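quick one, 171 residues, struct below
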Amino acid sequence: MMENKADIGVLVPHFLMMRDSRVIPIADKLWEKSGKNKDMFIDNTFDFITTNVYYITDKEAFGQEEFMQMPGQLLLETGAGDCGNSAQAMVSLLFFKGVPSRMTFGYALGQSHRWVEAQKSDGVWRVYDTTNGHVFTAAEREKFGYDALFWVTPYSFALAKIPILPPLFLP
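---
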């Protein structure tokens, strides 16, 4: 079912790239705008990404099928990227304010896709699809045609399909 085997090979670089400190001033501004409220911060961050990042495929933008931009590069320089670029940028912003979140590698409506899952104050994980603006609970993933394969955070990556395996924690 894996259409692009390159997706597996970029897991480790993604976890390192999510720690791009150039996004801290953006995270700080969004945090202040949110009144230091975690739930509002998640929503404002999602709105910021969906409003300010133009979707373009890596092939169109960079001439290759898989191109990894640093979150700072996406938000401060190019302003355009694919689903992975925008999802990674959102997780990076959330990371610097301590919000539990992960970039999910999987399939949406039969196509390889990446999105964000973040945990709100009520403990419920929600899907934030930075490409098309969809938001719903992670429990509704299947209902909306989303199939998670891997989760990547700034600290770890794990298989979504085999929850008995612990995440691989990295430095």
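DSSP finds seven helices and nine strands in the chain.
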